[in-house]
Design goal:
The structure is a homodimer of 502-residue chains. In chain A, helix 1 (3-32) crosses helix 3, helix 2 (42-60) runs antiparallel to helix 5 and helix 14 (355-373) runs antiparallel to helix 16. The first copy, chain A, is built from 20 helices and three strands. In chain A, a hairpin with a 2-residue loop joins strand 2 and strand 3 (246-251). The first copy, chain A, is mainly alpha-helical and 502 residues long. The first copy, chain A, has helices at 3-32, 42-60, 63-74, 81-97, 102-125, 128-149, 155-163, 169-192, 208-222, 258-277, 293-307, 314-324, 334-340, 355-373, 382-394, 419-436, 442-448, 452-461, 471-479, 485-499, and strands at 229-233, 239-243, 246-251. In chain A, strands 1-3-2 form a three-stranded mixed beta sheet, with helices on both faces. The termini of chain A are far apart. Chains A and B meet through helix 1, helix 2, strand 1 and strand 3 of A and helix 1, helix 2, strand 1 and strand 3 of B.
């Protein structure tokens, strides 16, 4: 194999894998966006997805690929910088993954496809027991995966690293300790204030078709291009990449809680903008991907919280609400809306949690996943332990499992080690916007309802790099320093001290 | 390769191909059912579909498959009857297809995926010119396909045979001549009668959401199982098989023409019942497929026309219409509805055409496809020739191309040689129901609104065989004689003489 042949093999194989990934992504959309496909067909669809995952995975770790990677790693002289990055990243993922047999991946995907169907029903009917065998199977897969991938100190490290390169239990323990130290007293002060803004005007019945019109308008306002993006509805909102020009995102419309869909549109829209701004020119090399899960979350949280819940943006949000729901919002002021969307209080549901308590929800899940990986917890323990922790951290006990351990899609979809990224994403978000303020008048943009300069900054400092930089390299490249939880803590303190007049 | 190995290779390869076909079917659904996916992503999705088609096709004609087929054809002694049929059918299709290079199939599929997007826009904006380059490309592909496949007398024979084994221009010319001889005088007599039933009550505004509820009810009434079937909406209704337990069908709701969706549900529902009743036990051998396109069409036409437009069923249809649209149907009688849904007259749109004129629409398309394959016609001639023929056969000229040559999805989706199957399907339908009447009291079942015995007869005499019999074998097995256009002509004569009091 010559250098040229090796390079061409990588480019051609990447194109093949991309075709397969496009197909499996469409199947994922079909399975998870409304209208849901016929239930009895789930097993066959899952088997087909498993087959294709196995094929794609097999292509990426074939003996020819190993030969090409070894050759080009040893002598990268004939490669340009993009090809070098392609080789570097592929080699890293090869080394990480080549121990996992393709059949194992396929088996997990097949189980997951059925578990997702089961979870949707179990959550609806609040029936944890039907999920028990699925969680058992999926947790056992996680133990196997950790063993296949390998780790130095903790089996959970192997899974954390899948989503956030270099992340470990040691770093996470320290990160969450730092947040806990600052945020628990802040939440205590908020609760001690005895003040709680009125948000009853957000709980009025709002027709879901009108909500859909509002949310499409908000998506366009954000700069999302419907020639390259589709919005759908689902149980649990998500963003999905089908191709560089085909991004799908979903929301869930609740008749009596229109802000849920609105902030989920801002959130998923932030994810979508990252994908829509990744440079097309990086695609042939497979470098047109986000830096990490946490970086992806930093973009969604920036739009949902830092921008979407800012005092400056409120007049614009209110104007749109008044346009679509004139009666419901007739007497609401911008300041009332600002206070109502920034209430901090203990709550049951992570995706509905406020900015201040959000990380405590993540901490709970982090601790449980860690204990599962240490075999201190089994699937059967989930409801009890979940509820104990809820009581300990939030002072409340979920009335049922659908508001408790059944609420998230992650475990049924095989996502393990993913949750901590949400918290890291919030920290990245605050740090990025702090840096952005040095060159862009963020408050003025928000006050004018103009997202363009804000998105442009993110595109130029974050999106432009694709996955060429690791998350730790990217945060330094974009902000000039490593991850620093201080920006996040300062941001939260400043906001909630003001909202609650502490 | 031993006989056992050869057999196992075929079974395993069939399972692989089925996985890929499941994925491409889901992609087809995503592309063609509402909500339509982002337009800019169409090229990448088309390329992915092309890649997968090529893979599946490549698997089905690999050198190992050829070896296995040759071995088992030479010595089928170790095979049971299902395995023998699998080998026989695979060999036939191998011999027919192995001359078409996989890359050619992939190129066509990629073009088709983009042409479909273009067609949806061209039809909407009545812009034939934008379709011209796509039709040019697709027609050239048909010439190439005919040459690759080969034929004895006429290049069109190669394409006709793809959908209806053994069908030729010679047989079609004779078939259409027979219909023309009997139906043209009948239509003339209908027109000469000067009588035309009132159907104005069918043109009232009917909310599409209520129509959707009505159509779901009709689908359930037909015996369609929503655990195995999904109904969607689209520009041009279709039925699609994703898996044995995953059938998708669509309709198009028109605000001012509710019968369009209603009869399309009966039509696509007839297709779906065929697929839902194919024996699961035939699946491992790939024998769980319809006998032919025309046989598929015979099932849809039976439900849409022979049952759906029968005098006996009318009280039940009317009852459902009154339930969902009480005001619109308050004063309508069953006899008025029967007359209104059996109007015979010249019309522009094939899918909206009545039973009597339908075959003339097919004849027009058959003649044009034949002329295209003789290179007497090019894509640029389509609007002119279409309109000339409409004037000659129907006495009307389409006011625009979207009511003319742009109306059908077939040419933009690469379906060539398919149209004649619709006419043959009608003929099969009449012949099957004539036979059914010997053992089932069809009129009594319809009068009771009970589809179960009728579907059971079709399941036992048609569906049960899958594709183990050729269409000409199946019509003999089910009715005791070869295709006989007489049943169809008699059926139409009897109905329209009665409706028009001739």
């Amino acid at each position: 194999m010559t250098t040229t042949e090796a390079k061409q093999l990588l480019l051609d194989t990447h194109a093949e894998i991309k075709h397969i990934v496009t197909a499996t992504a469409v199947m994922h959309w079909d399975e998870n966006a409304e209208p849901y496909p016929p239930e009895q067909g789930a097993a066959a669809r899952g088997a087909a997805q498993g087959y294709l995952y196995e094929k794609a995975f097999g292509l990426s770790i074939s003996p020819q690929i190993k030969e090409a990677l070894d050759l080009l790693t040893a002598d990268p002289s004939g490669l340009d910088e993009y090809e070098r990055d392609m080789v570097k990243i592929w080699k890293k993922s090869y080394d990480k993954n080549f121990k996992v047999p393709p059949a194992e991946i396929a088996a997990l995907e097949s189980v997951v496809s059925q578990a997702m169907q089961a979870w949707m029903k179990a959550k609806q009917s609040n029936d944890f027991d039907t999920m028990l065998p699925w969680y058992d199977k999926i947790f056992e897969f996680q133990h196997k995966m950790a063993d296949y991938i390998g780790y130095n100190k903790h089996p959970y490290d192997a899974l954390l690293d899948k989503f956030e390169e270099g992340m470990t239990v040691e770093l996470c323990d320290a990160f969450f300790a730092q947040l806990r130290e600052e945020l628990v007293p802040l939440l205590a002060a908020v609760q001690a204030s005895g003040r709680q803004p009125d948000d009853s005007f957000l709980r009025q019945a709002c027709d879901t078709a009108t909500q859909a019109a509002l949310n499409h308008e908000v998506a366009e306002w954000m700069g999302l291009d419907f020639n390259r993006l589709q919005m759908g509805t689902t149980e649990h909102p998500f963003m999905l990449v089908i191709g560089r020009d085909d991004i799908r995102m979903t929301t869930h419309y609740y008749e009596d809680d229109l802000m849920s869909a609105l902030f989920s549109t801002l959130h998923e829209g932030g994810h979508a903008l990252y994908e829509l701004n990744l440079p097309q020119a990086l695609s042939p090399y497979g470098l047109d991907e986000a830096a990490s899960t946490a970086f992806h979350e930093s973009q969604s949280r920036t739009f949902e919280n830092v921008f979407g819940r800012s005092r400056q943006l409120m007049p614009h949000l209110l104007e749109k609400l008044k346009k679509h729901f004139p009666q419901q919002f007739a007497d609401v002021t911008s300041e009332q809306l600002y206070a109502a969307v920034n209430i901090a209080q203990p709550s049951l549901i992570r995706v509905e949690a406020d900015e201040l308590t959000y990380c405590l929800h993540i901490m709970l899940r982090y601790e449980m996943e860690k204990d599962i990986m240490e075999r201190k917890l089994t699937a059967a323990d989930l409801p009890r332990v979940w509820n104990e922790k809820m009581q300990a951290y939030f002072g409340i006990t979920p009335p049922d499992d659908k508001s408790g351990c059944l609420q998230d899609t992650h475990w049924s979809s095989g996502l393990f080690g993913y949750f901590p990224s949400y918290a890291l994403g919030n920290a990245f978000s605050a740090q990025l916007v702090a840096k952005m303020r040095e060159s862009v008048d963020v408050d003025d943009c928000l006050a004018r309802g103009d997202f363009a300069p804000l998105t442009a900054w993110l595109a130029q400092h974050v999106h432009v790099h694709g996955c060429r930089l690791t998350p730790s390299e990217l945060i330094v490249a974009a902000t000039g320093e490593p991850l620093n939880a201080k920006y996040y803590v300062d941001y939260l303190k400043q906001k909630f001290i003001a909202v609650y007049g502490l």
